[in-house]
Design a protein that fits this description.
By secondary structure, the chain is mainly alpha-helical. Helix content is 51%, strand content 9%.
């Protein structure tokens, strides 16, 4: 999931990389991703698309069903 979301970089091409083949993205990249996610948190479709790469209604519905707003 972290690789899919772009939070880690992978060396090699394994489908399930070992920890030694992974490293976190740089601070700038991670902070930009956080800023982007925070900017779309009120738009469920856009938020789900950033996480799962899809705006399909089923994903939005599933995620919406587990989110609790404070």
């Amino acid at each position: 999931m972290l690789r899919q979301m772009g939070w880690i970089k992978q060396r090699g091409s394994r489908q399930t990389p070992k920890m030694a083949e992974c490293e976190l993205q740089g601070d700038e990249v991670l902070l930009r991703m956080r800023k982007d996610l925070m900017s779309v948190r009120k738009d469920p479709e856009a938020f789900v698309e950033m996480i799962f790469g899809s705006r399909e209604k089923i994903w939005v519905d599933r995620c919406s069903s587990i989110i609790v707003e404070y």
